[in-house]
Amino acid sequence: SGRAMPADDLAAVAVEVFGPDRVEVVPRLDDAIDAAVQLAEAEGELGGAGVLVTGSILTVAEARTLLGRAR
Q1: Pseudo-torsion of CA 57, 58, 62, 64, nearest 10°?
Q2: Is 2 exposed, middle or buried, given 0-12, 13-18 or 19+ CB atoms closer than 10 A?
Q3: In terms of Cα–Cα distance, which of 69, 65, 1 is closest to 29?
Q4: pLDDT 10s digits, 33-65
Q5: Sign of the CA dihedral with 43 first, then 54, 12, and 27 last
Q6: What are the distances in angstroms from CA 37 to CA 22, 45, 50, 55?
Q7: Mind listing the pLDDT tens digit for each residue in 10-25?
Q8: Cβ–Cβ contacts within 10 Å for residue 39, how many?
């Protein structure tokens, strides 16, 4: 999409906002969801957090499928 931002560019913006220790780029959606769930379930500062998937409707649909929530 012409509105899409490359992941590395988005990560650079996120690093400015959140700091480098809170930003991770994971190229594949399934791996990204796994990494996010592990962080959300871990003990510590981010423990007990949730996971929010954003992006195009196709990305969200794929995430729902990966999470077993497709209709």
Answers
A1: 20
A2: exposed
A3: 65
A4: 999 888 888 877 766 678 888 888 999 999 999
A5: positive
A6: 14, 14, 8, 18
A7: 999 999 999 998 899 9
A8: 16
The DSSP string of 30-65 is HHHHHHHHHHHHSSSTTTT------S-HHHHHHHHH
pTM listed for this prediction: 0.74
Taken in order 56, 57, 59, 63, is the CA torsion positive or negative? positive
HSE-up (13 A, CA, CB side) for residue 52: 3
55 token code pair: 């992006």
